[in-house]
Amino acid sequence: MLLLPFRYLWWLITSLLRSFRRPPAYVVFILEESLPALPDPPRPFWQRFTGRPRLSVKELGE
């Protein structure tokens, strides 16, 4: 409970200092692995009730 004013003061000082700096011109994200495959899109609404149910995890394991 005693540290709360100090934490707030520290947050206030750092946020003020951060606001004076210029943002970077650009940011680069390096992806070292290939992207995972996208999941299948959901079926249309009317087919969700009339079509066959999805396979369970147990059925996929067999």
Short key terms for the protein model shown above:
mainly alpha; elongated
Please provide a written account of the structure.
With 62 residues, the chain is mainly α. It has one domain. 45% of the residues lie in helices and 0% in strands. The chain has three helices and no strands. The longest helix has 17 residues. It is elongated. The mean pLDDT is 84.
Q: What is the count of helical runs?
A: 3
Note the overall shape: elongated
Give the CA-CA distance, first to last residue: 56 Å
Domain unit count: 1
Radius of gyration based on Cα positions:
26 Å
Whole-number average pLDDT? 84
Give the strand tally: 0
- Share of helix, binned: 40-55%
Low-pLDDT regions: none
Structural class comes to: mainly alpha
Largest sheet: none
Pattern of helices and strands: HHH
